[in-house]
From TrEMBL:
Belongs to the POU transcription factor family. Residues 259-319 form the Homeobox domain. Its main location: nucleus. The keyword Nucleus applies. Keywords: DNA-binding, Homeobox, Nucleus, Transcription. Residues 261-320 bind DNA. Residues 162-236 form the POU-specific domain. It is found in: Nucleus. GO terms for cellular component: nucleus. It comes from Rotaria magnacalcarata. The keyword Transcription applies. This is POU domain protein. GO terms for molecular function: DNA-binding transcription factor activity, RNA polymerase II-specific; RNA polymerase II cis-regulatory region sequence-specific DNA binding. InterPro entries: HD, Homeodomain-like_sf, Lambda_DNA-bd_dom_sf, POU, POU_dom, POU_domain_TF.
DNA sequence: ATGCATGAGGT
DNA sequence: CCTCATGCATA
């Protein structure tokens, strides 16, 4: 049999975060010339974001026009990169904003009075089950509704909960968050950049992407959730009055440039991947000597091979968790989780391997 | 969106 | 050396 691969995962087409090709303000070119294209892009996006260029026009009509002109290209570009079965531009930003329940907006304001200047609470205890997410999705989206409807009543006690984490809650928020983000015309990258500039923990585009598609463990999801919630809250307000947004602190970003270089990402040949996958099916925890052998055979660094196995295990584990949480209702044990139970959760085996390693 | 890399915390 | 959470880089 074969293990689940990336290509086999179901994928929901959604907004890509491909960079825009907009021109860089000449004013900043001295800075940009020393940066990589990626860094340039990120810097630029930060500038764009902080300057308020992407703010939805909650204020004057002129702002609305400016906003449209400035961002329509970007927004359209994003939409056009959608896969075929994704409806184009589902939510016009303005209309959506006004249509969003007054309840959500008012609750945002109420909440804001209380924690305007507090730091992000990092507790994962999810006490917000009662306090509800401020950006609650008022729609009864078929997917969620269906999911909820199909949940068995006999298991309702723990169906939506894994390790004390309410999966439904997170799922719901992830969906709402994505909708809001798209409605604001923001990419995952932009949100990530915005987070990195504001106080509190930041998350990258990757993290946001994984959160939105729930390609993360419940634990991390519950950690990221409050951060995104808070950002969303403040974003709504900030867009309301963006005057207070001053110039960016370029220094912070530039100073990061002196950090050491990251190893170039290894690209395995299909043949190598085939062999690696074969080896993985036989043994998810090859011994040190095993990995050395594999590394020699395939002519890759031993360390690279080791990391590959680590990542492979992690991927398998996460996908198993996901499928578990997605099919709580049907009581059949999935093949993937049984594989995981057999090979990954066998700590005895792992300990034994380590022991053998020491002896040899 | 996803694959490989990194680093923290554990054994 | 491992797992786990994350991020950079890239397909």
């Amino acid at each position: 049999m074969t293990l689940p691969t990336a290509s086999e995962k179901s994928r929901i087409p959604e907004a890509s975060c491909t960079s825009s090709n907009e021109q860089i303000n000449p004013f900043y070119s001295p800075f940009f010339s020393n940066l990589t294209s990626q860094q340039q892009q990120q810097l630029f996006l930060t500038q764009l974001l902080l300057s308020g260029a992407t703010c939805p026009p909650l204020n004057p009509l002129t702002n609305a026009l400016q906003f449209l002109l400035h961002n329509s290209a970007l927004f359209l570009q994003q939409q056009q990169q959608q896969q075929t079965n994704f409806p184009p531009c589902p939510i016009p930003p303005f209309i959506d904003y006004n249509n969003k329940s007054k309840e959500s907006i008012s609750s945002i304001n109420l909440k804001h009075k209380n924690d305007l200047n507090t730091s992000v609470p990092l507790d994962c205890s999810l006490s917000d089950t009662n306090e509800k997410s401020t950006i609650d999705d008022d729609d009864n989206s078929p997917t969620i509704a269906t999911t909820l409807a199909t949940l068995p009543s006999n298991n309702s006690e723990e169906t939506t909960t894994v390790d004390g984490i309410n999966l439904e809650e997170i799922k719901k928020f992830a969906k709402a968050f994505k909708l809001r983000r798209l409605a604001l015309g923001l990419t995952q990258t932009q949100v990530g950049q915005a987070l990195s500039v504001t106080r509190g923990p930041a998350y990258s585009q990757s993290a946001i992407c994984r959160f939105e598609k729930l390609d993360i463990t419940p634990k991390s999801a519950s950690k990221i959730k409050p951060v995104l919630e808070k950002w969303m809250r403040e974003a709504e307000l900030k867009y309301g009055d963006r005057l207070k947004n001053g110039p960016t602190n370029l220094q912070d970003l530039v100073s990061d440039l002196n950090t050491k270089k990251r190893k170039r990402r290894t690209s395995f040949t299909p043949q190598a991947l085939e062999k690696l996958n074969d080896a993985f099916e036989l043994n998810t925890h090859p011994s040190g000597t095993d990995m050395s052998t594999i590394a020699q055979e395939l002519n890759y660094d031993r360390e690279v091979i080791r990391v590959w196995f680590c990542n492979k295990r992690q991927a398998l584990k996460n996908s198993a968790k996901k499928s578990k949480s997605n099919q709580i209702n049907d009581d059949n044990e999935s093949t993937s989780s049984s594989l995981m139970d057999d090979k990954l959760s066998d700590t005895t085996n792992y300990a034994k391997l380590q022991h053998d390693e020491i002896l040899s």
